Amino acid sequence: MKYPLASTTWDEAEYAAIERVVRSGVFTMGAEVLTFEQQFAKWIGSNYAVMVNSGSSANLIAVAALMFRKTGALKRGDEVIVPAVSWSTTYYPLQQYGLKLKFVDIDRDTLNINIEQLRSAVTENTKVIFAVNLLGNPNDFNKIKEIIGNRNIILLEDNCESLGAVFNNKQAGTHGLLGTFSSFFSHHIATMEGGLVVTNDEEIYHIMLCIRAHGWTRNLPKRNLVCGEKSDNAFDESFRFVLPGYNMRPLEMSGAIGKEQLKKLSQMITTRRENALIFTDMFANHPWIKIQKEIGESSWFGFALVLSEDAPISRSELVQKLLLNEIDVRPIVAGNFAKNEVLKWFDCTIHNELTNADYIDKNGFFVGNHHYPLDEQIKYLYSLLK
Ligand SMILES: Cc1ncc(COP(=O)(O)O)c(C=O)c1O
User: Fold this and answer.
1) Ligand 1, atom 10: closest residue by C-alpha
2) What string of DSSP letters covers 283-345?
């Protein structure tokens, strides 16, 4: 039996959507992307959504937007708290905008930022907490907000792995000022490459519309919070640049595919949660493996497993065994990111010790979850681990 890490969520509907775009002759960002953004914002419960060409770009545009606000803009050297376990492109935009990262350990059970370590890491210098919802698991935003209290700290969410997760009856990605999403192949929805940022803040929305496309005014509403009022002279306005931006526009096909994926999303998440029930039931009392502890309602990107200190087998032996038996397996995201050579380019500090990040780096792994029933695969995994 094969137990893959990821599988396609496409059927004829996505291919028909691509064909519709091909027939229209409009390939770059247009009406399909705009409709998808509006539908996505509604689904998630946010005022605005901006689609870009990847989750990494979503993180980049989110951080960039915070540098260009009229009031309360971040400045180079400002401190941002991050969990030590996430994907590389959670961190890179912070480095690229000259922000100072403070790595904080994770919780060994939930795999999200360790709340007590976070509490002691926050100082009067902290400007942002960049929370990451790991492998579908939302953070405890009550506790994070309680730590923030009435301090002037921006809460950002990297929700690239956790579309559909819910905490306190509110979608993950909507608990802070901005939330980011990825629609890369292996994620909850797939436009193959793609990402989104959601926010309720109109100024940030306008800034993102501008820096997504060349930093020009063309995609801004006539009255907007970046340049005020645009002129009626289309020629003058066509190449008017107001912010240092990028070209992160998605293709029109990605918007059309996104619309189809969104129709299936609730059902796909329901099935992922049904699979999780089977997985958590089966592994709850495993003698030498611990599984990820759910906070709120996870959308179960995959199933993380961590070997206990007294496990009778090493991780490398175990991984070998799983691969030989055609079970795909990966490390828990990037493990302890702070161990990487790339850190020599960062202005950063490590808060206390990264003991748990190190532990899961050496002893953790995850297997896939899918939008179809996995009873057989999970039983197969369990029997192999026995
Ligand atoms: C936590 C996290 N942030 C950002 C990204 C980047 O998303 P993308 O691959 O769409 O660039 C990923 C990718 O999986 C991720 O896991």
Assistant:
1) 55
2) HTT-SSEEEPPP-SB---SEEEEEE-TT-SS-HHHHHHHHHHTTB--B-STTSSGGGSGGGGG
Give me the amino acid identity at 253: M
C-alpha–C-alpha distance, residues 208 and 80, integer Å: 20
CB 307 within 8 A of CB 288: yes
User: How far is C-alpha 270 from the chain's CA centre?
Assistant: 19
Q: What 8-state DSSP symbol labels residue 251?
A: B
**Which residues line the pocket of ligand 1, CB cutoff 6 A?**
54-56, 59, 86-87, 89-90, 132, 158, 160-161, 182, 184, 195, 333
User: From ligand 1's centre to the CA of 195, what distance in Å?
Assistant: 9
Distance 219 CA to ligand 1 centre (A): 26
Question: Catalytic residue numbers?
Answer: 187
Per-residue tokens: 57: 């770009």
pLDDT tens digits for range 214-265: 999 999 999 999 999 999 999 989 999 999 999 999 999 999 999 999 999 9
CA of 167 to the centre of ligand 1 (A): 21
Q: What does the pLDDT look like over 274-302, one tens digit per residue? A: 999 999 999 999 999 999 999 999 999 99
**Residue among 161, 181, 189, 196 whose CB has most ligand 1 atoms within 8 A, to mutate:** 161
Residue 56 Cα: closest atom of ligand 1: 11
Task: Answer yes or no: pTM beyond 0.70.
Answer: yes
CA distance 134 to 364: 13
